[in-house]
Design brief:
It is a single chain. The chain has helices at 3-27, 42-52, 62-76, 86-112, 131-137, 147-165. The protein is an all-alpha fold. The protein has 3 domains: 1-76, no CATH class; 85-126, no CATH class; 129-168, no CATH class. Helix 1 packs across helix 3 (62-76). The radius of gyration is 22 Å and the shape is elongated. The relative contact order is 0.07.
Length: 168
């Protein structure tokens, strides 16, 4: 490879890495584009921190971020043509979702399998919306939750979660 080509590739790589880092910093925790090949929110960054931190020094550099992004793109580019078509992108997202679901299922099994038999009986399953919580959501006191009350509770919870992440 010619020196000018190498130089151009290095400049493009560094520029891309700096842009990605600046974008992540500008978005702030929890404000990034969820999913996607390049964007991630603060939660996703924490989930993938160890994978991105290639030298395991507890810090993510622009070069590590760029390398991680390139590796994710290459993994998604099943036919190796340098582009992602809709099928490749769907497969990539489906695989990511399956990994997250498997991890969540494992955590749930560890937490709820009280007798340790590797399965959940009806007695070990959560009971759903408890009567005391139902009463708290029933703001008009009619003994039931209307769609409006459920939406209002969701909005309140969204504001609470944003506050917990320091995004308000």
């Amino acid at each position: 490879m010619q020196k000018s080509t190498k130089t151009a590739l290095v400049i493009l790589s560094v520029t891309g890495a700096l842009f990605a880092t600046a974008t992540l910093a500008d978005m702030g925790p929890g404000r990034g584009m969820k999913g996607g090949m390049g964007g991630m929110d603060g939660g996703m960054l924490m989930e993938q921190f160890d994978a991105i931190d290639a030298d395991k020094d507890g810090k993510i550099t622009p070069a590590e971020l760029a390398a991680h992004r390139e590796a994710r793109f290459a993994a998604a580019d099943a036919n190796g043509d340098g582009k992602l078509d809709a099928d490749e992108l769907t497969a990539f997202h489906t695989a990511q979702m399956a990994e997250r679901m498997a991890a969540r299922t494992n955590r749930m099994m560890q937490w709820m399998d009280a007798n340790g038999d590797g399965g959940l009986s009806a007695d070990e399953m959560p009971g759903g919306l408890a009567a005391d919580r139902l009463a708290r959501l029933d703001t008009d006191g009619d003994g039931a939750i209307s769609k409006e009350e459920a939406q209002a509770a969701g909005k309140r919870m969204g504001k609470y979660r944003k506050g917990m992440q320091g995004n308000d």
